[in-house]
């Protein structure tokens, strides 16, 4: 039996509620396939931890996480703790110190998911966003000068290194090649005359090594428009940290909402653990009510399974989610239902089990 060690950080707000359902599905996969298992260690870090200890995680937290194969994160942020503290003290700290420079966000319209676009079909919305995750506009470089004075000025510096830009673009080319799909770069070279001109140049340079990969390049404003009017233009997309953050939320809006939005933070070299998370935030307004949508957290489990080398099981989890969405008898209020969070998790497990019993999915030895 292969045993995978998972560091679980339930986090804040609805994080513990949705993570619980993701773990439920992960354990169900293990029970359905005894060839591998998951050992979960829980870490109580987040804003509540900050309120007690003045820090978002233990001083030796990174060393503790390093011993695991993956990290499963619920949510970060809660009223009373400034966002820049909660973000930089936990989520971004992990991303940066573990060199999780690839952020993967699937924008895929599942059967049964609501879509606000009038004429969009399921096959029109199937994008894989590859977002640079370690530098760019979120590098944390800058300064705040002359605070409180008339001449006050702030500097927020985007950092685009040759290494960082080239490796994310190369990862995107490799992904597009392996999937035999179109690769689109999104930048803003007409206005950002250093960083984005450099990005475009590197995209073109690396592309010479991949003559078989068809490419397009769009300015970010044009890309935003096309995502709404012609989403079928996009298959694999590579973009910077900030643009990726914004565009993937737009992508979530057209593919079912944030309750169906999952994200993976990968260290492709596997020198450090990668991290998997729903991207919807801590939603403090509904925390503790048992009505949070766990499907994004469960989709994150699918991403984790794929990263571990079990693509069939990853796809099976998505098929189970689709069955829940199409049956429509067990959905949380954000999707028009009345079900509780735990009921949705149970329903996904039942759908997954049904796939195996109907021999639509065979255990992998």
TrEMBL record:
The keyword NAD applies. GO terms for molecular function: tartrate dehydrogenase activity. This is D-malate dehydrogenase (decarboxylating). Residues 5-348 form the Isopropylmalate dehydrogenase-like domain. Belongs to the isocitrate and isopropylmalate dehydrogenases family. PROSITE patterns: IDH_IMDH. It is an enzyme of class 1 (oxidoreductase). The lineage of its organism: Bacteria, Bacillati, Bacillota, Bacilli, Bacillales. Its EC number is 1.1.1.83. It comes from the Bacteria. It catalyses: (R)-malate + NAD(+) = pyruvate + CO2 + NADH. InterPro entries: ICDH/IPMDH, IsoCit/isopropylmalate_DH_CS, IsoPropMal-DH-like_dom, TTC_DH. Its cofactor is Mg(2+); Mn(2+). Keywords: Manganese, Metal-binding, NAD, Oxidoreductase.
């Amino acid at each position: 039996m292969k045993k995978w060690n998972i560091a679980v950080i339930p986090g804040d707000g609805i994080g513990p509620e949705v993570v619980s359902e993701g773990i439920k599905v992960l354990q169900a996969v293990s029970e359905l396939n005894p060839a591998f298992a998951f050992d979960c260690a829980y870490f109580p870090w987040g804003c509540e931890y900050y309120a007690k200890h003045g820090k978002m995680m233990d001083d030796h937290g990174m060393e503790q996480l390093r011993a695991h194969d993956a990290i499963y994160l619920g949510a970060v942020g809660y009223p009373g703790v400034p966002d820049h503290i909660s973000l930089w003290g936990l989520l971004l700290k992990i991303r940066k110190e573990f060199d999780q420079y690839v952020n993967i966000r699937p924008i895929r319209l599942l059967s049964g998911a609501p879509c606000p676009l009038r004429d969009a079909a399921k096959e029109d919305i199937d994008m894989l966003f590859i977002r640079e995750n370690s530098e760019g506009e979120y590098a944390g470089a800058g300064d705040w000068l002359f605070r409180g004075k008339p001449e006050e000025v702030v500097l927020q510096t985007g950092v685009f290194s040759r290494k960082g830009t080239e490796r994310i673009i190369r990862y995107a080319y490799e992904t597009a090649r392996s999937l035999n799909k179109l690769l689109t770069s999104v930048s803003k070279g007409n206005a950002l005359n250093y960083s984005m001109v450099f990005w475009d140049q590197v995209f073109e340079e690396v592309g010479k090594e991949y003559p078989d990969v068809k490419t397009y390049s769009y300015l970010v404003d044009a890309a935003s428009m096309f995502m709404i009017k012609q989403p079928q233009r996009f298959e694999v997309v590579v973009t910077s940290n900030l643009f990726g953050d914004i565009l993937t939320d737009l992508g979530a809006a057209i593919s079912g909402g944030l309750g169906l939005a999952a994200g993976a933070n990968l260290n492709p070299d596997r020198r450090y653990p990668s991290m998997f998370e729903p991207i919807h935030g801590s939603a403090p307004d509904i925390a503790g009510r048992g009505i949070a949508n766990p499907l994004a957290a469960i989709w994150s489990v699918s991403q984790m399974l794929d990263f571990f080398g079990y693509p069939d099981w990853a796809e099976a989890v998505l098929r189970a989610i689709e069955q829940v969405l199409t049956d429509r008898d067990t959905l949380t209020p954000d999707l028009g239902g009345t079900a509780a969070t735990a009921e949705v998790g149970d329903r996904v497990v039942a759908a997954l089990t049904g796939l195996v019993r109907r021999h639509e999915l065979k255990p992998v030895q």
